[in-house]
Design goal:
This protein is mostly helical. It is built from one helix and no strands.
Length: 37
């Protein structure tokens, strides 16, 4: 059971990093769309 919880926590941390990365990419895309006509 403990290793299961640890696995979920690890997955959650990885997901957090990925979602932060996706958000950064989204803002970059929005900025480039605003800059380019």
């Amino acid at each position: 059971m403990e290793e299961f919880v640890g696995r979920i926590r690890r997955l959650r941390r990885i997901w957090h990093k990925q979602s932060a990365l996706f958000r950064r990419l989204e803002t970059l895309e929005n900025v480039s769309n605003r800059l380019l006509p």
